[in-house]
UniProtKB/TrEMBL annotation:
Signal sequence region: 1-21
Domain Cathepsin propeptide inhibitor: 58-114
Keywords: Disulfide bond, Glycoprotein, Hydrolase, Protease, Signal, Thiol protease, Zymogen
Family: Belongs to the peptidase C1 family.
GO terms assigned for molecular function: cysteine-type peptidase activity
Pfam families membership: Inhibitor_I29, Peptidase_C1
GO (cellular component) term, any one: lytic vacuole
Domain Peptidase C1A papain C-terminal: 142-375
Protein name according to UniProt: Uncharacterized protein
Superkingdom to which the source organism belongs: Eukaryota
Annotated PANTHER family: CYSTEINE PROTEASE FAMILY C1-RELATED (PTHR12411)
Entry-linked InterPro entries: Papain-like_cys_pep_sf, Pept_asp_AS, Pept_cys_AS, Pept_his_AS, Peptidase_C1A, Peptidase_C1A_C, Peptidase_C1A_papain-like, Prot_inhib_I29
GO BP of this protein: proteolysis
Length: 384
């Protein structure tokens, strides 16, 4: 019964999912369909309470996240958006029952504002010329569960603020891990250096970017690509430490890169194939990987394994893949779901202490489609 209804659901959805990108409208029209086959979960009932008492929960939300609105109109408008987002969270809960969706610090933002200010992956940029194709690795003896946090290769969760610089955090995260593997030291690296200085990329036909036209390539808060950031770092010589070139979340400043303060350098970087076993093998062998993802479901995400029935593969957010697990809780699936463990850059107050879990096995939200690994240069400690 459980299986057959899910099967029907999948058939129904897969026919529509290929034609429709994820939009609020497309979810709306399929809602009716979904209601017939997906039973209400307890998280969904909790969301009903939130919706009934939206104003009360809005004032708690304003307090909890220290929100300040310019005037009464702004306050009223944000309450309206908040209510819409509660309905959206309820829909997300229904479509994504193995995760928990609800109020997050982004609950007063429209999906458009959220996308503009907190994502920032520019997938139109071409692959840099120095990118390698990752060689095929053996996958026979991969561990069933793996997490680079247990091996000291991951720095604390950072916060990109209101700036589309996700790509720089994904890139530093990968290089921090690679540098740890090469040197045995975990050093937090500078995103601001990438935001201020990384403006050289090519599109299909031209070298289009230079320091004078920062809006046409890896463009600070306007977005960028992790492979472009690796290319920049390779060419520039390396990245400074976070503390030497601290993050401001603004991209109007000049490049202040100081070559004498390089803390980690890129040896080479590679694009990993779309195969999940290869992604896991590269992760285990080379450290955390830079990945692109579609973030539509992340605005309302609170915890659990996100495994939405529909999610477009249109990538718009850069994050860091740090591990995987074999047995996530899945209330409706009657079995454990395997998942990827993802480090995000929205601070610890989002998701599971800043982390996101997304199911493995079918390129959910495009998580397998833009994966890159970086290798750091082995350094011998300088003699005093
Ligand atoms: C590459 O950039 C140049 C200069 O901005 C532009 O004229 C050209 O159309 C771009 N090509 C592609 C394929 O985007
Ligand atoms: C990348 O760099 C690492 C570390 O220096 C090296 O072991 C590896 O062979 C390099 N890979 C390629 C494809 O050049």
């Amino acid at each position: 019964m459980e299986f057959s209804s899910r099967f029907v659901l999948l058939i129904l959805l897969s026919t529509t999912a290929v034609v429709l990108a994820y939009t609020e409208e497309s979810i709306e029209t399929q809602d009716l369909l979904i209601r017939q086959v997906v039973p209400e979960s307890s998280s969904s009932n909790q969301l009903d309470d939130l919706i009934l008492n939206a104003e009360h929960h809005f004032s708690n939300f304003v307090k909890e996240f220290g929100k300040v609105y310019a005037d009464i109109e702004e306050h009223a408008y944000r309450l309206k958006v908040f209510k819409k987002n509660l309905l959206r969270a309820k829909r997300h809960q229904k479509f994504d029952p193995s995760a928990v969706h609800g109020i997050t610090k982004f609950s007063d933002l429209t999906p458009r504002e959220f996308k503009r200010n907190y994502l920032g992956l520019r997938r139109k940029l071409d692959l840099p010329s120095d990118a390698n194709q990752a060689p095929i690795l053996p996958t026979k003896d991969l561990p069933t569960d793996f997490d680079w946090r247990d091996h000291g290769a991951v720095t604390g969760v950072k916060n990109q603020g209101t700036c589309g610089s996700c790509w720089s955090f994904s890139a530093t995260g990968a290089l921090e891990g690679a540098n740890f593997l090469a040197t045995g030291k975990l050093v937090s690296l500078s995103e601001q250096q990438l935001v201020d200085c990384d403006h050289v990329v090519r599109n299909r036909s031209f070298l289009i970017c230079d320091a004078e036209s920062p809006s046409s390539c890896d463009a600070g808060c306007g977005g960028g690509l992790m492979t472009s950031a690796f290319e920049y770092t390779l060419k520039a010589g390396g990245l400074e430490k976070e503390e030497d070139y601290p993050y401001t979340g603004k991209d109007r400043g000049p490049c202040k890169f100081d070559k004498t303060k390089i803390a980690a350098s890129v040896s080479n970087f590679s694009v990993v194939s779309l195969d999940e076993e290869q992604i896991a093998a590269n992760l285990v062998q080379h450290g955390p990987l830079a990945v692109g993802i579609n973030a539509a479901w992340m605005q309302t995400y609170i915890g659990g394994v996100s495994c939405p029935y529909i999610c477009t593969h249109r990538l718009n957010h850069g994050v860091l893949l740090v591990g995987y697990g074999s047995a996530g809780h899945a209330p409706l699936r009657m079995k454990d779901v395997p998942y990827w463990i993802i480090k995000n850059s929205w601070g610890e107050s989002w998701g599971e202490k800043g982390y996101y879990k997304i199911c493995r096995g079918h390129n959910a939200c495009g998580v397998d489609s833009m994966v890159s690994s970086v290798a750091a240069i082995h350094t011998t400690p300088a003699k005093p």
